[in-house]
Design goal:
By secondary structure, this protein is of the alpha/beta class. The protein has two domains: 235 residues, 3-Layer(aba) Sandwich (Aspartate Aminotransferase, domain 2); 94 residues, Aspartate Aminotransferase, domain 1. 40% of the residues lie in helices and 16% in strands. The protein has 14 helices and twelve strands. It has a seven-stranded mixed beta sheet, with helices on both faces. Strands 9-12-11 form a three-stranded antiparallel beta sheet, with helices on one face. Helix 3 crosses helix 10 and helix 12 packs parallel to helix 14. The radius of gyration is 21 Å and the shape is globular. The two termini are 31 Å apart. It binds pyridoxal-5'-phosphate (PLP). The site of pyridoxal-5'-phosphate (PLP) has 11 residues, from helix 3.
């Protein structure tokens, strides 16, 4: 089989030659003593880029979100967030396990919430209720298709939340994709949230690591939870060095990934049995409905895998394809030819 075309996630990116070189040359020290110069530099740059006082390097986005939640809340408080957010679905119930908090979730078709939806759920602590202390937004939203918060909507949520003494955390695993879509610097996207987690190891292409940023005292508290979770590393400057390259060099490539995602959606929209709206594509995530092919997402993805194209089934009839810097336009074209061949072989007819 020729090389695999991996559209499962942007987590699959491998470090670039520049990242490997930077890792080789990295100055390191013991980060638990704050003595790793590469990590110190990465934390300063990350904070600067997202416009916050301080940042901390964490091994994963999940740990970054969980450190944030612990630092913003007390046990027995409530967090309002989207029902299909990463924090709710894919973090092992960490909100309950680690922070001792309760989630109150809201639906929306695209992963974007508004203050009008959130407001009725906000409640003060009382003899009967857990009080709300935190709102978490996901920007861009992963599992509902990479949608981006309109800045006004996000700013509105933050302003209203702050008026009521609530904090807002952004799961910005892909906030650089969001900023690329909006055509604004990242610090404008994150300006009014109290904290933001973003991943170096997704579209930015670093092999490992995420950043959590916020006020200096928030980051001090988050560091304590990172330690509890075993996430305080020692000479991890080798990782931070790759992260720095990712931070400085990769954002400019995201527009290309978005164009490739749009290309994939447009190609799939022409194929029988597949339903996807190309106008819905804002960033690098394509969600497709394959019910009309007569195959489940799992069946179609297994057939594609046999032919060297990797993608994920995310629900019985839904699949997800992501673009990233390890897939070129030619590979996207080749992947689309493969999907088309599979549909022909299975006999999916136009009009199905
Ligand atoms: C929106 C979002 N948040 C958080 C994470 C967690 O990142 P990690 O896999 O590094 O724990 C992911 C990972 O896919 C994600 O998509």
């Amino acid at each position: 089989m020729s090389e695999l075309i991996d559209l499962r996630s942007d987590t699959v990116t491998r470090p670039t030659p520049q990242m490997r070189q930077a890792m080789f040359e990295a100055e390191v020290g013991d980060d638990v003593y704050h003595e790793d110069p590469s990590i110190n530099l990465l934390e300063r740059r990350a904070a600067e880029i997202v416009g916050k006082e301080a940042a901390v390097f964490v091994p994963t986005g999940t740990m970054g979100n969980q450190c944030a939640i612990r630092a913003h809340t007390q046990r027995g408080e409530e967090i309002i967030l989207h029902e299909r957010s990463h924090i709710v679905l894919y973090e092992m119930g960490g909100v309950a396990q680690l922070a001792g908090c309760v989630t109150r979730t809201l639906p929306s078709p695209d992963g974007i919430l508004s203050w009008d939806q959130i407001e009725p759920l906000v409640r003060p602590a009382s003899d009967h209720f857990c009080g709300t202390s935190l709102i978490a937004v996901e920007n861009s939203h992963n599992i509902l298709g990479g949608h981006v918060y309109p800045q006004q909507v996000l700013n509105g949520i933050c302003d209203e939340a702050h008026e009521r003494g609530l904090k807002v955390h952004m799961d910005g695993a892909r906030v650089f994709n969001a900023a690329t879509y909006l055509g604004t610097p990242v610090h404008e996207v994150t300006a009014r949230v109290d904290s933001v987690m973003f991943c170096l190891s997704k579209g930015l292409g670093a092999p490992v690591g995420s950043m959590l940023a916020g006020s200096a005292d928030f980051i001090e508290r988050a560091r304590l939870t990172r330690k509890v979770l075993g996430g305080s590393m020692r000479q991890a400057g080798v990782l931070a060095a790759a992260g720095l390259v990712a931070l400085e060099q990769s954002p400019t490539g995201l527009a290309r990934d978005h164009e490739n995602a749009r290309f994939i959606a447009e190609s799939l929209a022409e194929m029988p049995g597949i339903s996807v709206n190309p106008a819905d594509i804002q960033t690098n995530i394509v969600i497709l409905d394959v019910r009309g092919t007569g195959m489940s997402g799992k069946e179609l993805s297994a057939k594609l895998r046999e032919r060297g194209v990797l993608s994920n089934a995310i629900a019985p009839y839904r699949m997800r394809m992501l673009t990233h810097f390890d897939v070129s336009r030619e590979q996207c074209e080749s992947a689309m030819r493969t999907v088309s061949e599979v549909l022909q072989q299975v006999g999916v007819a136009v009009g199905d």
